[in-house]
Amino acid sequence: MSLFITSLNSGSNGNCYYIGNAHEAVLIDAGISCKETEKRIQRLGLSMQKVKAIFITHEHIDHIKGVEVLANRHQLPVYITAATLHNSHARIHTHLVKPFRAYESIKIGGLAVTGFPKQHDAVEPHSFMITGNGVTVGVFTDIGASCEHVITNFRQCHAAFLEANYDEVMLEQGSYPIHLQRRIRGGNGHLSNRQALELFMAHRPAHMSHLLLSHLSKNNNNPELVTDLFSPFAKEMNIVIATRYKETAIYEVTDIRSKPKVIEKKKPERHASQPTLF
What we know:
- It is a single chain.
- The chain has helices spanning 34-43, 61-64, 67-74, 82-88, 148-154, 168-173, 178-185, 193-203, 223-230; strands spanning 2-9, 16-20, 25-28, 51-55, 78-79, 97-98, 105-108, 111-117, 126-132, 135-140, 159-163, 210-214, 238-241, 251-254.
- A seven-stranded mixed sheet has the order 6-5-4-3-2-1-14, with helices on one face.
- 44% of the residues are buried.
- By secondary structure, the chain is an alpha/beta fold.
- The chain is built from nine helices and 14 strands.
- It starts with a strand and ends in a 24-residue tail after the last strand.
């Protein structure tokens, strides 16, 4: 029993993550255009017909840019808090708007989606956990700090999209003005590579098999730098960079704890009176 995950895009130019089973799927955020979302899903051999809902983390444009057209064209319910909808100014058809509360489990076919609060400079930001077929996937981006909500949920994941937004030295020595640097590295901004690694090392569950490092800054990070930082601690885990330029492959996530153990049969003991056969 599995879930299938892919990042359709990840970065300040747009965020959109696909999580599904064999029958239905959800999108976490719709930060790229409807046309681009459809194109990337088709390239992966997936179908928009399987997508049954969109869940919005917060109102920043790189998370909602495509939601209006995508939802209205495909008649997809959009789960979004009232305050986030107000601040987004998105004109989603009224019957498609579905408010939700933190830690409310929402059933989408065989999937259960639960939002939880996080620290970010938006009006009512949430991250999401998606569970189905005994597998849990978490989306942890746009996080100012590893609060208890983040830690508790991260410990449950078989797979996670985890923000590794910036390298601290590159941010400090780069071209961003001081006020923007402070916003990014403040408690309501983004996780640095180091902070993401600390969260991963301290709270990585034994059953986690996939880590998709996400929302990398174009100007203050480098994919090779992130890969080199995390790879020594990967063990048998699949560690992937979710890029800002194209979709990732589709990854099948299973519960490694449910795999049957191979029991080696003991050879019968040979007594002294038994002849040796050649």
